[in-house]
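New to this. Comment on this protein:
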Amino acid sequence: MSLLKTKHDIIAYTVDKTSNSSLYISIQNGEVIVKAPWYYTQKQIQTVVEEKKNWILKHLKEYIEAETIRKQKINTEPVLVFGKSYDVIVKYANTKNPTLNLLERYIEIILPAKYIDLNKTKIIQATLSKMYTSIAKNEIETIMEDARHLLGFAPEDFQIKSLTNCLAKCVNQIITIDPAIMQYSHEMIRFIIIHEFCHLKYKNHTKGFYELMEKYIFDYEKIAKQVEKLKF
């Protein structure tokens, strides 16, 4: 084991002498491995490691972060947002209420420290439900407005609330959308909302209904296959 001491950091690394003609540095399970030609001196290796110190520190940090996420994530099915899969990690802090942060690679839920001994499954599900509702308020309103301009007509009103056994419905000129729809891709969400718009003109799935759908949905057949198992 060798050490590189810099002003602010110490990098420990293992040297593996090989018959290759070039030096190669990799991060394996959080350890810095240097594969160097057999004729390289320790000073030459140290020089290359120092030149690559920023790259090494960056990848060591990424490894530590990934390990932290792996150890903290809960054993649930991955959570989907706009078709992208996220792991869920739970942290505890001195807060009054649960909070949620949708980050680039995972969903962070921060629970009050007093909850640490409680069964957190229901709390987490309720927090995720609030997340979907919050996202849906902006997303659905935007799609509704676009659909109104595109089709030239609109429902008397629309609402966002949990539904039983379906993601969306159109009843008495009012469209209702379940916030859980935010699990799916933007294309699928738009497809479902325009589907409900078409029910404003056609109550049933008639030929005219499908002609209207195909007129305003780009790549209709492809997206229809993606949503065919969903209920709306």
Q: What stands out?
A: Residues 121 and 164 are 21 Å apart (CA to CA). The chain has three domains: 2-72, 79-129, 132-227. The chain has a mean pLDDT of 87.
